[in-house]
Amino acid sequence: MRKNYFLIGVFALATITFAACSSEDKLGEERSDDNGNTEVIEGEPTWAKFTFKLGKDGVVARATGDTHEGTTTEKNIKNLRAYIFNESGSFEAKTDNATVDEHGTEHTAVLKLTSGKKKVYVVANMQDDWITSTTTTAQFEAVTLTHCTKAGRIAHTKGVETAVAVSRVGNFDKISGNGNAATNGFLMANVLKATEYTLYPGISAEDCSKPAYDSSAEMKKNNHLEVFISRAAAKLQATYVNADALILKDSESNTLGKLLTPTFTVRNLPVQSYIFLHNHVDGFLTPFYIMTNTSSTFADFAKYYDEVNEPNLDLKASADGEAIESIYLPENSNQTPVRGNTTYVLVKGVFAPAANVMINAVEVKNDGGNLSIENKLDGTDYTTGGKDVPPYFIVPEWENQIYTAPADFSGNLANYGLGMILKTYLNKAGKQKWLNAVDEGSAVDEGDIENSVSVYYGSSFSTSEGIYSVVTIKKYSHPKNALPGYKESIEGTIRIFQYTGGTCYYRVNVEDNMDGKTEANNLFYSVMRNRFYNVNISKITSIGYPDDEDVTVDPTDPINQKTYMQAHITVEPWTKVEQDAELGM
């Protein structure tokens, strides 16, 4: 038998003062060298008892009284298998006969093994036994899962374990590791950094199974080891603080409108994750950690991230007593976080303008030769939800001013709005004397008398600029002493969003400030397994994007959290992540 010695230092030995077992029960041996260190011989017969517990990131979850530690379905362990490898990475033994305590929270197994360093991998609720005697640790750690991430099919209703809620889990085989999570449980595994254990030789089955020990050191010396496992998925819910959170107000606290019928889903979900949590010096790794970067294209991102979910979970007030729905997510981290690879919540709703807010005409007023504009208003309050919201557009840099056409207008909204945009632009630019100068016949002079120039302005739609429709403001000028004909020049461009029925979309990036991470840390925009993310909308800062793809625009763009829902996150066991957010563009 090969004997491979390794030393347990004097410092560690000082904390271990209990003998492994009585001499007559020893199956192997320990030896001491001349320096007082204990040599543990690898390969000697011994017994070990493993206690498997559902914990937090591979460690014990502290008691907080938190209601999000998991529902019965989320904590239930239907089956559990432990796979033990020796120090060289070769498979040594496995067990799938773990017993369960009276509370259903601790699972134990007693095995006859050999002494030495071991790696223990634990998988709970994996339906199929996919390990063989030739599987190595490297192969084991490389196992990945694909995901079923369609929002409505993997929804869970918080705190209400009804048949309807459980059935919505649907085909959960990609995250749960089996075809029916409600019946077979949610996939759980341990953390790679916490998998190494030392088994001492000569420990009997009786000693490793004692009901109580004087210290944790004695437990370890008697090969009674605790292994903590965690769910291989995260959980997220989105809520809003109260009704005021869905109301958009201007800088003077006047109500501009309200977001009606809000729903949510989660996007940019990776299509693969590891079965075990791969810890890294900076946090953790996922299969696509280095696969996308700032030079990637939409096609590149589509290989690794899901972009097809539709928002269909109701966004509810966080304190209204109604059942709040959640989504289970695969973990996600990236070497270079950008808009195309970070997981985010997509909120969809109808932004309904308040009364006396929607502008449907701009009228030029003449007060003794001084021109000014007056906005004509629709006068309808759409926030009650009793009337369909008509098409409208906004100019984002004009502080959410909303433009539409009269109710009896049946033409093209965009073309109708050109006149309103032109006049508003001229007024904001301090060019009031040209408010009526919209063609050659109404041109107005500028400059001095000897060098006067006849000027008028026009507007037209140009090609789109990214996510915006663009209106070009043109200046037409003709010096009085020049040849006939007006010279055209570009005065400026106005970017607008056009909405159909008020439907709009918002984005909030999922954040994880675990261990004090800040936005400067590349893992700040991450999803970690076994954590509960609560995205709580606190304020709307603008009308959202008119199309859902607008929230990503160019996937290589850097993340600018100021343009989305602003968030604050704290982390608690399940683990729960609190996130307050403001809705905006």
From TrEMBL:
Domain Major fimbrial subunit protein N-terminal, chain residue ranges per copy: 48-231
InterPro entries, sorted: FimA_N, Mfa1_C, Mfa1_fim
Family, as annotated: Belongs to the bacteroidetes fimbrillin superfamily. FimA/Mfa1 family.
Cellular localization per UniProt: Fimbrium
PROSITE patterns per the UniProt record, alphabetical: PROKAR_LIPOPROTEIN
Primary localisation category: other
Pfam families found in the cross-reference section: Fimbrillin_C, P_gingi_FimA
Record has Signal as a keyword: yes
Gene3D superfamilies in the record: 2.60.40.2580, 2.60.40.3690
GO CC field: pilus shaft
Keyword Signal: yes
Protein name, entry field: Fimbrial subunit protein C-terminal domain-containing protein
Origin species: Bacteroides xylanisolvens
